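Q: What changes when iron/sulfur cluster is included in the input?
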Amino acid sequence: MRYVDEFRDRDLCTDRLDAIRSVGAELGRHVKIMEICGGHTHTIYRNGLPGLLPDNIEFVHGPGCPVCVVPMGRIDDVRHLVENDGVVLCTFGDVVRVPGRNGSLLEAKAKGADVRIVYSPMDALDIARREADRVVVFLALGFETTTPPTAATILRARAEGVANFAVHCNHVLVNPAILAILEAPGQSIDAFVGPGHVSAIIGTGTYEYVPREWGKPFVVSGFEPLDLLQALEMILVQLREGRAEIENQYSRVVTPGGNSHAQALVDEVFEVRPHFEWRGLGSIASSALAVRPEFSDWDAEVRFDLPGVRLEDARACQCGEILKGALKPWQCKVFGTGCTPEHPIGSCMVSAEGACAAYYSYGSQGLRSDGTVAS
Amino acid sequence: MSGTRAEVPRSISERLRDRPVVRDRAVTSSHGAGGKAQAALLEGLLFESYGSDELRREEDGAVLHTAGAERLVFTTDSFVVTPREFPGGSLGRLAVFGTVNDLAVMGADPRWISVALILEEGFAMDELRKVADDIAAAASEAGVAIVTGDTKVVERGRGDGVYVNTAGIGFLPEGLDLGAHRVVPGDRVVVSGNIGDHGTAVLLARGELAFAGDVRSDCGTVTELTRALLEAAPGTRWMRDPTRGGLASVCAELAAGSGAGIVLNETALPIRPTVRAACELLGIDPLYVANEGKVVAVVPEDEADSAVEALRRLEGGGAAAVVGTVAEDSAGVVLLETAVGGKRVVDQLVGDPLPRIC
Ligand code: SF4
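A: The predicted holo structure follows.
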C-alpha cells in the first residue's frame, strides 16, 4: 500500500527539494528559518527533512509547542487542586508528563489523584454531567487553535447550568511570543514559517508587523512535508529577491481574516491577561488569556484558592534558549543525560512537538557514518 | 548564549544502549506499556532481584531443555483490557491468543495453557460466563488444552472486575534456532499483515473519541502464520508478535539485541486507511500501536518473497509485506526511510502513546 496523499508524494517533494537547493545555492549564505509551531517541528523531524536540505539552510525551532511553554507553577497549581480539593482533573494526553516542582500529573495519578485524559474540553464537561457529586476541572492550554473549543465549552456549561465544572485557563497567544523572540538580544533569524492551524483562526493579517517592522519574510504553512517544503521555497525566493512579505502556502485552510465566528466566541469568554509566565521565556506582557469575570463561576482560578507560586525553571534547563532558537537541543548540558523523554527536566522533552523530544526520538538531521547526529 | 558547549553529541546508538535506571518513586501506567519505562523496570529493578539468563534474554518465552532431546517453550502473560469486549475480540480471547502467540513466535507448537482468574466481588456471573466461554472457544481454535488453573476473589474496589493470567507450554521443533543472534545484514523484515488494528479498535471501542471508525481488532492466533512462514522460509532468523508498543518497539528491541541496524520503509508499511486516519487525528504513530494477531519476522533475503507469498495465502496474512532491511551501519538503531525520502530514528516510546494536543 502506498501513501495516496499528494502532500507526501516523493516525486513532488523531490522537485521542491531541487528548487530549494538551487535557490539556496544562489543565496550563497547561511539561512536560519524559525518554524514557530510545534506541529511543524514534529513534521520536520518525523519525515527526516533536515537530512534532505542543503547545509546552508537551517530550521530553528520556535515556541509554538503548547505543552512546552506551560510553567511549573501552573502545573503545581492544578496538582494542588486535584490533591487537596479532590477535584477530577481532566486534560490532554501529553500534558500529564510535564514536570512540576514535585513531579508530573502522571505521578500524582499514580498516587491516587483523579487525573483523566480527555480528547476535548467537551469530554470534560460530559464527565461533570455524569458525575454530579464531583467537581471537574479542565486544565486548558494551547495557542489560538485550542481556545475556541474551550470557550464553547464554558458557554455550554453556563447555558446548561453545569455548576460542578471549571476551567483552569493557560491559553496563550502566538504573536506576543513571536515579538519576544524578535526582541531577544542577539536574535539572528532570517525568516519565519508561520503556524497553520493558529492562522486559520486568527488570520494572516495579524503578522503584518513581522515583515513591516522587522523586515523578515513570514510564510504560513500546512503540516504535510510537501507543505513545508513549498513554504521553505517561498521564503528562500523572498530572501533572494530581497522581499519581506506575508505569504500563505496553506490557502486551502487559512485566510487573511481568519475565522471570525471562532474569534467572537473567544472574545466573549476570555480577556487578555496583563502578564503571563512562559516556561523558558519568562514573563511576557499581554500574552495569555483569562476567563472573563462574567464567567467566574467556571474559572478555577477564581473558585479555588491556588498557591499560585512562581517558580524558577530548573537550573540545568535551557529550554528558554531552545524556544528562542538560540541553542540546538543537543547543546543543552543535560540533553540525553539528565533530561530524557523518560525523565524530562524541561518541557521541550515532553511533548512530541517539543524540539528536544523530537530531536531525541527521531535522531533529527540524519546519522553521520560514525553514528553521531549531525548538528 | 552563556553556558553553551559546542561538543559532538553522543552517538545515538550509545544513547540507546544506556543502562536503564528506575528513577520514579512509584509505579505509573507507563511501566506496563511495553516501552522504555517498562524496560527500565525490568532491567533496573526486577532483574536485579531475580534476573536469570533466560529472563535477561527478554524473549517472548523461555526455552527449557529437558532430560531427553526435547525442548519446551514456556511463557506467561496477564491481561486487562477496557472495554472487555471490542470489535474483533474480547478479554477472554486475548488472554488465550496472547500466550499462544508468544509460544508460536518462539517457533514452538503450542500445546497446554493454564488460566488464572482474579475476580472482584460483585462481578456479574453472566459476564464471567462470557469470559469463560470466550476462553474455551479461543483455546479450541488455537488447538491448546487448558490443563490447570486458579481462581481468587478480591474485595470490591480492589480489582477491575476480572484479571486473567495465562501461562503456556509448547514443543520446539528439533534443530530450530531463532533469535536476535542469528540476524545478519541483508536480511529482510517481514510483517504478516496490517499494523495497528488492535490498539485502534480498542481505543475507538472505548467511545471516548468524537470519531467512530469501522476498525476490528486482529485478535487471533498466529500459529498458522508462523508454521507457514517457517516452512516457506526455513532460514527464518527471528520472530516476534508486535503487541504493546507495536512494530516500532519490537524492531527497537531487535536492533538493541542483535546490534544490527534496521531500516524500515515507510511506504511499504501495510496500514488500513481507517487506522491511518484515526491515528492521524489523534496524533499517534501507528508504528507504536498494538497488534494481537500479527507476526514480525526476519528472514534471509532470498527467502523473503516466498515468505510473503506463503503468508498472503493464509487468512489474516493478505497484507503481508517486506517492510525493512537489516543494515550494516547504524548499529543498534532503527531508522525509518520516510515517504518523502528522509530518514529518522524510530525509538522506543517511554510509555503508552499519548494523544497530542491540537
Ligand atoms: S534537554 Fe531538557 S532541559 Fe535541556 S533544553 Fe531540552 S528540555 Fe530543556
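Observations recorded in class: Residues A 317-319, 322, 329, 332, 334-335, 339, 345-346, 348-349, 356 surround iron/sulfur cluster (CB under 6 Å).
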